[in-house]
Amino acid sequence: MQGLIDLMAETSTQNPERIAEVLADHGVRPTSQRETVYSSLLQKRDHPTADEVFARVREKAPTISLATVYNCLDVLVQHNLVKAVNFERAPTQYCANLAPHAHFHDEEGRTLDIDMPAGMFEQLRGLLPQNFDVKDIEVNFHGRAPKS
Amino acid sequence: MQGLIDLMAETSTQNPERIAEVLADHGVRPTSQRETVYSSLLQKRDHPTADEVFARVREKAPTISLATVYNCLDVLVQHNLVKAVNFERAPTQYCANLAPHAHFHDEEGRTLDIDMPAGMFEQLRGLLPQNFDVKDIEVNFHGRAPKS
DNA sequence: GTTGCGAATTAGAATTATTCTAATTGGGTG
DNA sequence: CACCCAATTAGAATAATTCTAATTCGCAAC
Ligand SMILES: [Mn+2]
Ligand SMILES: [Mn+2]
Ligand SMILES: [Zn+2]
Ligand SMILES: [Zn+2]
Questions:
Q1: Residue B8 has pLDDT above 60, yes or no
Q2: Of A15, B10, B31, B38, which is most buried by a Cβ count within 10 Å?
Q3: Ligand 2 being an ion, which residues bring their Cβ within 5 A of it?
Q4: How far apart are CA A106 and CA A140, in angstroms?
Q5: Which phi and psi angles does B12 have, rounded to 5°?
Q6: Contact state of A141 with B136 under an 8 Å Cβ cutoff
Q7: Strand, coil or helix: what is B44?
């Protein structure tokens, strides 16, 4: 049994048609490279680095360059289709999960999505004075996750 | 009128004697470079980068090297006297505020400490399954702070 | 007081993720 | 078809940090 988000991902993933549509809806001109990069992020819901995305998309787009992968990822981040996740000084990781969530960074290098109940971000926001303009709140856990 | 933390900082700051003691208490051999670096972090409670620390300590220790500044900061972080703070891919910043707190990253580059009420970190911890071993929780706000 | 030791410091080279540059490509429009 | 301009590309440049290998330092043993 699958959650709503997963179903959505699967649907988008399997319709190249829809990928272009989603990009366009977010103001991103759907080039083939952008479609390939975005599609690869939707297909495997982990948190790959630019290099890992590069490796994955080469199969579908053998002539794509690493610079283009960076360009595509930047555009997707700028248009809120993808989130860039940073942990310590490790290479930036990319996340296509648009639901508000936190990240758990395992000591072995895995990065897991952690659901945040609706009120939690508001509660955190409440720690700041009213006259602060908050654009983003980031919650990162670090530790050891069970091996499973 | 000042808070307890500030008083403590001030006291430590003005007694080179005490700085060495604090280092030793935390298992750090108090070399003159480490004392100078740690002292500089206590004196100005902002969030300097390694380069900024380097610039500041040169006055007191004109022969110190940047490599040593990095070494000292690493040792202080390893022994929990200082926290390393990362935001996006900006140079790592260092924070001598040991009270649990969050960070607000201003769009103009300032970094502010945000107090966290006692229960908040526990509440966040509660979002994870019991069998996760959590070593650290990081909360970063991003946005615009009033100019004041 | 000198010597010996291991840790710390140092200068500079190396690393590496990312950004920049400048040339080329290519999809859509007239 | 030709034009346009954004996107793509290969490769060079950048910059924070780490590494390397040599030197210095503080301290204890003698
Ligand atoms: Mn880690
Ligand atoms: Mn910022
Ligand atoms: Zn995520
Ligand atoms: Zn801080």
A1: no
A2: B38
A3: B 105
A4: 11
A5: -55, -45
A6: yes
A7: coil
Fold classification of B100-143 is Dna Ligase; domain 1 (3.30.1490)
B37-53 residue pLDDT tens: 999 999 999 999 999 99
Which residues of chain A lie closer than 8 angstroms to B138, CB-CB? 138-142
Q: How far is the CA of A68 from the C1' of D7 (A)?
A: 9
Say how far A90 CA is from D12 C1', in Å: 23
Question: Rounded CA gap, B137 and B102, in Å?
Answer: 9
Domain residues of chain B, as ranges? 2-93, 100-143
pLDDT digits (tens, 9 = 90+) for B27-38: 999 999 999 999
Triad B43, B82, B142: Cα angle to 5°: 90
- The CATH topology of domain A2-93 is Arc Repressor Mutant, subunit A (1.10.10)
Residue of B132, B138, B146 with shortest CB distance to A131:
B146
Within 7 A of a protein CB, which nucleotides of strand D? 6-11, 15-20, 26
Instruction: Give chain A's mean pLDDT.
Output: 92
Per-residue b/e over B127-141, b at no fewer than 16 CB within 10 Å? bbeeebeeeebbbbb
Give the per-residue pLDDT at A10. 59
Which long-range contacts link A50-53 to residues 24+ away (Cβ below 8 Å)? A50/A91, A50/A92, A50/A94, A51/A91, A53/A94
